Amino acid sequence: MTEDTDQILAKQFAQRKQLRDICQSRITALFQEVGEHYLRSNVATLDLHQIHDVHAFYRLIQDPTRVVHVQGYPGMSSGHEARVWARMMDYRAMMLIRHSGIVSIGNEHKATILGFRNFAHGIMIPYVANALEAKLAENVPELTI
Residue 117: is its pLDDT beyond 80? Predict the structure, then answer.
């Protein structure tokens, strides 16, 4: 490779990393805003984790044995939309798996109760709280606020 090609590739890599960092911040803010809405409406509490991806766990107040796991993918998101995926999990099973240390947070797959069809392979949504809230409420009526 020539020096010019190396510089171009380095610049492209830096731009992609910058976009990923921006998307991670925006996804985190989105998940936090949804969590604040749920808490104010007394429907769910939020447990948020930033690892490689962003993981929001919305634990239902009416039924604390159930938790909605929403995963945001900064590397697959854009400046306008976030790539997200969601499922329902058994809170107790998830915590047992998590505390075993066998898998990292967000990979407690054996605790899954229900995959959400409208999130099948991940969806693109705007960075707007009510957009995510509406999609989650389609699967979990308790999250309607």
Answer: yes
Strand partners for 48? 56
Pairing mode, strands 54-60 and 44-50: antiparallel
> For residue 144, which of 10, 42, 51 has the smallest C-alpha distance?
42
CA atoms of 103 and 137, how far apart (whole Å):
28
- Distance of CA 120 to CAs 58, 69, 93, 115, 123, Å? 19, 13, 22, 7, 8
Look up tokens 């505390």; give the residue. 99
Please state the pTM of the whole predicted model.
0.91
Q: Cα separation of 138 and 64, whole Å?
A: 19
d(CA 106, CA 129): 21
Q: Decide: 63 and 142 in contact? Cβ < 8 Å.
A: yes
Helix 3-40 crosses helix 129-139 at what angle (to 10 degrees)?
60
